[in-house]
Amino acid sequence: MIGLVTERLMLLDTASLYFRAYFGVPESVKAPDGTPVNAVRGLLDFITRLVEDREPTRLVACMDADWRPQFRVDAIPSYKAHRVAEEAGPDEEEIPDTLGPQVPVIEQALDALGIPRVGVAGFEADDVIATLATRSPTAVDIVTGDRDLFQLVDDARSIRVLYTVKGVAAHEVIDEAAVLARYGVPASAYADFATLRGDASDGLPGVKGVGDKTAAQLIVEYGDLAGVRRAAADPRAGLTPARRARIVEASDYLDVAPGVVRVVRDVPLPPAAEWDRPLPTEPADPAALDTLRRQWGLTGPVHRLLDVLAARR
């Protein structure tokens, strides 16, 4: 019996992981009919490694029900605009042709295994992760390659990020000390720091001329984004004229950017019965899993994951 003190919720940033699997596992890995299944096999092996290494007692695959939510686009139209598929509608993300067909297989495999998937219409997986982490009474491991989620790190509540930017096997454990060492700001100020710095990969311009170092200096000196803006409005504050001018010029951006950068911590989750359950030790639907295994050539990854799950009984 696993005691309360050892309980740990693991939250997967699923799209982040299957994109990494897709680009990390050769496309020559195919199903019997020749269809690439590199993302499927890679994701299953990632989950096996994470469960074996980190021993979560609950596991939730968080999904992007909306990868580019309208409330974020309304605030900053450039938000992820460069990722929109040119020949599709404004809500379609550009992804590799051979990855798209693998996503339904991933979802079916997770369902057959009994690993709950949670996505909420109008919100990104980041928001689902934030809400689940905020509500969790136990320790939380967030598995992602997205540094935006560093804003959730909280030592007092045992919330940390397993950062996979260098790979799942070589993931880094990000706690408050790690955030401070990397960026010079506490995790609680990371969202304000990121707002000032911007992020080209998400279409967020930031404040012109403000990079990591300057953003950190501003947060340390003035406490938070509101303090930085107050200092920019006060000629008696210690800001240089150039920095003051840049912050003032970015006022329109700074008015709306926090609502884009900060994750939503209170999305309307589905009923807890759909996702709040112990780590499965056997498949929820053995027949469906067997069909998927044979159809898509997933015998090795499925058996490896089942063995690790069974060992958690």
Automatic annotation (TrEMBL):
Print the keywords alphabetically. Answer: DNA-binding, Exonuclease, Hydrolase, Nuclease
Lineage, opening ranks:
Bacteria, Bacillati, Actinomycetota, Actinomycetes, Kitasatosporales
SUPFAM superfamilies xrefs: 5' to 3' exonuclease, C-terminal subdomain, PIN domain-like
- Originating organism: Embleya hyalina
One Pfam family linked to the record: 5_3_exonuc_N
Record function comment: 5'-3' exonuclease acting preferentially on double-stranded DNA.
Would you tell me the protein name for this molecule?
A: 5'-3' exonuclease
Instruction: Name a GO molecular-function annotation.
Output: DNA binding
Q: Which GO terms describe its biological process?
A: DNA replication, Okazaki fragment processing
Boundaries of each 5'-3' exonuclease domain copy? 7-276
SMART domains on file = 53EXOc (SM00475), HhH2 (SM00279)
- InterPro entries referenced in this protein's UniProt entry, alphabetically: 5-3_exonucl_a-hlix_arch_N, 5-3_exonuclease, 5-3_exonuclease_C_sf, DNA_polI_H3TH, FEN, HhH2, PIN-like_dom_sf
